[in-house]
Amino acid sequence: MTTISEPKPRRSLRAAWTAAHAPVTGVPRWARTAAYAIPLTVLPSSIWRIAVCTFGAPIADVSMAGGQGQLPSWLPLAAFVILLSIASELLAFTAVGLVSAWGEVCPYWIPGLRGRRVPALAAVVPAALGATVLTLLCTWFVISHALGLTIQGNALTANAILNFDDWKGGLAVMAYAPLLLWGPLLGAVTVAYWRRRSGVRVEPQ
Questions:
Q1: Contacts of 198 (CB under 8 A, 6+ apart)
Q2: Of 16-25, 132-141, 159-168, 171-180, where does mean pLDDT reach its minimum?
């Protein structure tokens, strides 16, 4: 009698991704929701920039894009915008590590660190600094625009990208407005991460 042994299932990339990003024990539901929402706060502005500066979508005056600006001649504006958008999304996605396994144990693909415990402060310090800088920068951006100034303190021009004068300006405002949530959300998730890693528990009132 011939027996046919079933091949051992190989761990697919999807399964490995799911396992690495599954919320670890003790993560509050609100923290998980906030962490996964952070990359979404960056997405609308990234799409807007790529649409305007790379594909020339008629959703903003081309002159508003600023041309080549202060970029070096060897770096096209379209390429810079794509790289900036990708970098922004990757940076925002690191917040997911504050609620996932790879935020506590180094992934296997990091040479020399694979499987090692991530020190809590190694994640908390940069996350807290990032949350603080983002919150302050976005707050100053809103205040300066409300006062008719740029973030450098110069007077806003009549053709400023973010405005409520027409639908194009309003669309730009809607694309960039979610960025205001990046800093506060990151700060809240960072506090939850620190409490979980340090064993601090908040007793219900």
A1: 120
A2: 16-25
Q: What is the rounded distance in angstroms from the CA atom of residue 37 to the CA atom of residue 27?
A: 15
pLDDT band at 122 (very low <50, low <70, confident <90, very high): very high
For residue range 56-99, what is the model confidence (pLDDT) as tens digits? 888 887 554 445 556 677 788 888 999 999 999 999 999 999 99
Residue 186 CA to residue 93 CA, distance in Å, equals 11
Torsion of CA 22, 38, 33, 30, to 10 degrees: 120
Through-space distance between the first and last CA atoms of the chain, rounded to whole angstroms: 68
Closest CA to 19 of 116, 107, 98, 119: 107
pLDDT in tens, 5-23: 444 445 566 766 666 667 7
Dihedral of alpha carbons 52, 58, 59, 62, sign: positive
User: 69: how many CB neighbours lie within 10 A of its CB?
Assistant: 8
DSSP string, 178-199: GGGGHHHHHHHHHHHHHHHHHT
Task: Give the pair of three-digit tokens for residue 143.
Answer: 């205040």
DSSP string, 22-45: SBPTT--HHHHHHHHHHHHHHHHH
State how far the Cα of 179 lies from the Cα of 176, in Å rounded to an integer.
6
